[in-house]
Amino acid sequence: MATIGFIGGGNMAEAILKGLLAAGTAPLSIRVSEPLAERRQYLSSVYGVVCTEDNKTVVTASDTIVLAIKPQMAASVLPELAGVFSADKLLVSILAGTPTARLAALLGQPARIVRAMPNTPALIGAGATALATGSNATTADLTTARALFAAVGTICTVTEAQMDAVTAVSGSGPAYIFTVIDAMVAGGVAEGLDPDTALALAIQTVIGSARLVAETGEAPLALRQKVCSPGGTTLAAIEKLDALGFAAALTAGVRRAAERSRELG
């Protein structure tokens, strides 16, 4: 990754470049194209990276290009880059629901592409990213992509056919957890806690529970069973959640997210 370019300077691009800088990448080896002048000024002043509003300039000057735009913008952005995109460049796409074959078709060439699905905890270096290679990507390209996202969290490799499921589980997943935290806080406040105390308790409970699953290696439902004493408060809560269809609704939401990802593609 001698030089790295970002097409799009939004939150996820910022998270990745922030991680790269923390890992020792030189700021002047990173270029960002971003249409908003205020955003360009922010990224340049805070991180010292080179910013421009010209996508072609970034592609021309970069060995690895991270495509960090909205999926709906791909059809207008990529064809304009076809003339400056060459076989020696690697495209890393974080676009949801957009297959590598479609990206290559928009570029008008058999480009080397690695598809990535990070999530928003990458903003604090705690992201989960899945990577899938396009038909022309090499093992070295996958290694390059892994280096990009290792700076902002954990990585797994999947087939491209599995990327819609990845999008549904981890890409959209933080929103599910935020909803759970918000609902826990609302319940605590309704029972007399002040909002700050309820929020602090809910946050640490989610963090601690996730660590318990990760560090013990036990199945989530097995751990749940251990805190569900017969006739106790936790079992009463779980029975109420089951009666309201909590788990089924969450599973259905994950599947709808995957379906939407396929629709975007």
User: Class of the largest domain, according to the CATH hierarchy?
Assistant: Alpha Beta
| End-to-end gap | 28 Å
Residue stretches low in confidence (pLDDT < 50, at least 5 long) are: none
Number of domains: 2
CATH H-level superfamily title of the largest domain: NAD(P)-binding Rossmann-like Domain
Class by SSE composition: alpha/beta
Q: Radius of gyration, rounded?
A: 21 Å
H/I helix tally: 12
Beta percentage is 5-15%
For this entry, what is the oligomeric state of its chains?
single chain
Helix content: 40-55%
Mean pLDDT: 94
Q: What can you see in these coordinates?
A:
With 265 residues, the chain is an alpha/beta fold. It has 2 domains: 4-166, Rossmann fold (3-Layer(aba) Sandwich); 173-264, ProC C-terminal domain-like (ProC C-terminal domain-like fold). Helices cover 54% and strands 14% of the residues. It has 12 helices and 8 strands. The chain has helices at residues 11-22, 37-47, 55-61, 74-81, 100-107, 139-150, 163-171, 173-190, 195-216, 220-226, 233-243, 246-264; strands at residues 4-7, 30-33, 50-52, 64-67, 90-93, 112-117, 127-133, 153-157. An 8-stranded mixed beta sheet has the order 3-2-1-4-5-6-7-8, with helices on both faces. Strand 7 (127-133), helix 6 (139-150) and strand 8 form a beta-alpha-beta unit. Helix 7 crosses helix 12 (246-264) and helix 8 packs across helix 9. The radius of gyration is 21 Å and the shape is elongated. The model has no long low-confidence stretch (mean pLDDT 94).
How would the blueprint of this fold be written?
Blueprint: E1 4-7, H1 11-22, E2 30-33, H2 37-47, E3 50-52, H3 55-61, E4 64-67, H4 74-81, E5 90-93, H5 100-107, E6 112-117, E7 127-133, H6 139-150, E8 153-157, H7 163-171, H8 173-190, H9 195-216, H10 220-226, H11 233-243, H12 246-264
Parallel strand pairs: 1-2, 1-4, 2-3, 4-5, 5-6, 7-8
Antiparallel strand pairs: 6-7
